[in-house]
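Colleagues,

For the teaching module next term, I've prepared a clean inverse folding example: a structure given as tokens, and then the sequence designed for it. I'd like students to try predicting residues themselves before seeing the answer, so please don't circulate the second half yet.
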């Protein structure tokens, strides 16, 4: 929208470079062009402002496919006013000379024209296309048909409008139909997810089984080694017992042999001692047998005297002394004889 200022009953208009201004004064064209700036009187001026920049027109409308399914088409048309003078002649682009705002809605008229034209060609395409094909290939087909139809529309060049580009954003069915169409794909995706889950679980189970088998093999190997260790310990203990028993036997045999030799030596010594004693006794007896009884009595008395306790004093009565002297006298006499 152009900027309009007031000065002493005059009006000053300053437009943008993308706006085409047409100024009629008393029925004659006084100013015509883009980005103009001029003074004018509001009572005698007729102004029109035509935007010449590219405009984006978003549109959404319903259509029906060949299998009687409702779909929503979302598209965008880019257009521009290529002939501002022709557009100003065909559409009301006049602006208020005091405020600079449009007196009507020319852009809405252009939007209605483009939307209805695009909708007409879209309906023509989708009416011959099943829903499944429309969802797969409908975007390209509708875009091509709408672009061709707008290019061939006679009212657009007659109004000074050029279509720059056509874009079809989406073709969507109703929510229930869309959910129904999504169900097979979702089921397939869910099946793939389940299959991946099952495979992951199978791999996990296989790994757990491998781990369990490794643990079991380790336990079996450990038990086998423990068995070997027990057997070896038993063998070592048995060998140790056998060696100990053999050593004990050798030691016992040596001790017994020593005792036998000792006993034999003691017996031989005892036999020799007894023989010697017997010979000494026999000799003693022979000697005593050859000696007279008086000598034996004297020896006996001597032995007895050697074995009796020490006598400090001895008192003899006269009778005993007389008898003893008499015996001694006889003994001396017998010895002298």
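(Answer key — instructors only)
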């Amino acid at each position: 929208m152009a900027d309009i200022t007031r000065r002493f009953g005059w009006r000053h208009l300053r437009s943008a470079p993308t706006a085409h201004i047409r100024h009629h004064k008393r029925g004659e064209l006084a100013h015509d062009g883009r980005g103009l700036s001029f003074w004018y009187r509001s009572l005698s001026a007729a102004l029109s402002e035509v935007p010449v920049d590219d405009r984006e027109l978003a549109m959404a409308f319903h259509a029906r496919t060949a299998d009687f399914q409702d779909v929503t088409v979302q598209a965008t048309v880019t257009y521009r006013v290529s002939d501002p003078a022709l557009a100003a002649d065909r559409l009301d682009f006049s602006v208020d000379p005091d405020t600079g705002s449009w007196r009507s809605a020319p852009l809405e008229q252009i939007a209605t024209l483009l939307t209805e034209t695009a909708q007409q060609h879209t309906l023509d395409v989708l009416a011959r296309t099943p829903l499944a094909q429309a969802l797969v290939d409908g975007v390209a087909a509708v875009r091509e048909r709408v672009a061709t139809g707008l290019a061939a529309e006679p009212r657009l060049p007659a109004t000074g409008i050029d279509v720059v580009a056509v874009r079809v954003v989406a073709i969507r069915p109703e929510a229930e139909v869309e959910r129904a169409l999504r169900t097979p794909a979702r089921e397939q995706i869910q099946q793939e997810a389940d299959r991946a889950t099952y495979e992951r679980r199978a791999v996990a189970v296989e790994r757990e089984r491998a781990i369990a088998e490794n643990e079991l093999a380790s336990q079996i190997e450990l038990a086998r080694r423990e068995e070997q260790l027990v057997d070896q310990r038993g063998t070592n203990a048995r060998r140790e017992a056998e060696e100990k028993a053999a050593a004990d036997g050798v030691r016992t045999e040596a001790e017994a042999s020593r005792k036998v030799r000792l006993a034999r030596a003691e017996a031989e010594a005892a036999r020799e001692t007894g023989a010697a004693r017997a010979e000494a006794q026999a000799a003693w007896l022979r000697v005593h047998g050859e000696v007279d009884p008086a000598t034996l009595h004297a020896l006996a008395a001597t032995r007895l005297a050697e074995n009796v306790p020490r006598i400090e004093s001895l008192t003899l009565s006269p009778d005993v002394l007389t008898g003893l002297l008499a015996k001694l006298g006889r003994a001396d006499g017998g010895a002298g004889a």
